[in-house]
Amino acid sequence: MHFCLGSLNPVKKEALIQALKESGRFSSVHVSCENAPSGVPDQPKGFESTLTGARNRAKAVWHEGIFMGVGIESGIVPVPLTRTGFMNLTACVFYNGREYFTGLGPAFELPTKISRLVTEEGMELDAAVQAAGFSKNPRIGYSEGLIGILTGNAVTRMDYTKPSIHMALAALC
């Protein structure tokens, strides 16, 4: 089965490949990648913006010959009763040319300084992580991710992304 991911991020691609194989639903898996526009700000804020970004990416890369277009988008969403009021989560959307199949992954609260930089100053998460002194890597989302830094790599960005893919696959049933 041919899946096309609407991102060139190698972590998202590998997470998709692993999750598709782990699902045991496909005898063969081929994943191609295209740089698809999300149609939302570089740092989505809120469920709607995050889901819209994933949907737009999935739809943009679907065409005849592709089994499913796939969009994976991380965003900051308001969550009451948390220290900062915001959590980071990932949405995955599969699109088959007619229907969308959506899944969400786990969420984690950002450190206060990073949360403030993203929510109040409008920074993208990678830039906020650098500005707050958590990493010198300008593209932390292309490697272990902020979650990798915060957990000492007990959970990496790939680990964190895969559940959203599995949840979207569950919607295919």
Automatic annotation (TrEMBL):
UniProt keyword Secreted present: no
Keyword terms of this UniProt record: Hydrolase, Magnesium, Manganese, Metal-binding, Nucleotide metabolism, Nucleotide-binding
UniProt entry tagged with the keyword Signal: no
Reaction equations catalysed: ITP + H2O = IDP + phosphate + H(+); XTP + H2O = XDP + phosphate + H(+)
Cofactor requirement: Mg(2+); Mn(2+)
Enzyme class, broadest EC rank: hydrolase
Domain Non-canonical purine NTP phosphatase/PRRC1, residue spans: 6-171
Pfam families reported for this sequence: NTPase_I-T
EC number: 3.6.1.73
GO molecular function per UniProt: ITPase activity; metal ion binding; nucleotide binding
GO biological process terms, semicolon-separated: nucleotide metabolic process; thiamine metabolic process
PANTHER family attached to this UniProt entry: NON-CANONICAL PURINE NTP PHOSPHATASE_PRRC1 DOMAIN-CONTAINING PROTEIN (PTHR34699:SF2), PTHR34699
Record's protein name: inosine/xanthosine triphosphatase
